[in-house]
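Consider this one:
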Amino acid sequence: MDSTAEILAQVNAVRWHQSFEILPGVVSQGTYRPDGLWRRLGLGPEISGNRVLDLGARDGYFSFRCETLGAKVLAVDYVEKEGTGFSLAAKLRRSEVQFINRNIYDLRPADIGTFDYVLMLGLLYHLPDPYLALEILRSLTKPGGVAFVETTCTDEAVHFKDRSVATGSLNDLPLMIFVARNVTSFWDMNSTCLTQLLEHTGFSLQDMQRWGKRMLARSIAVESSEVERTNSMARGVVKRG
């Protein structure tokens, strides 16, 4: 093992997004502290031995925390692990978390299986087709499995590049708004919309947390022939006779 000084030099040479303790005394210098969201997830020993999928894993914080609890983790990101802090963090931690470089729209259960717990944290608003993404999320979650979706929330206001607009009086309506704040931010929505999207893609909402501009939904994957029929019809064709 390299000396602490050598390890710190390696860590400081990486451009991190997530700020977390990789090893005792070794902290990545990212712009986002994910520990608060980790506490909101409320995950504990119950995930030991279970399969966990971390979508949009980035530097790997949530993947490594789940691994520490005994879960079998697959991390996915559209950026190669060498392009983030994931590769170095996994090496330093001697992690056994598996990683694949894939876009969420290319994930199939036939390729990677299904999971007991799926994390979609800080990803949904970066995707141009959130409904399709949630359909894929459902296909990767075992029936009875748990999916966490954390994203931006417009229950109080929607924030554009040049202004903010109050939306609190509209929360009884399921609203999703095209914001285009930057090249990777597409859609913001309110909690009513996220709840209904989850229901229409095969989930049953168990809990919704809201704070500031963010929200976190905890849902259970359910089997519904009506949901399957509706979504199959929406993406297929109907032939006469």
Notes: Helices lie at 4-12, 35-41, 61-68, 86-93, 109-112, 130-140, 191-200, 225-234. The longest strand covers residues 141-152. The mean pLDDT is 95. Residues 130-140 form the longest helix (11 residues).
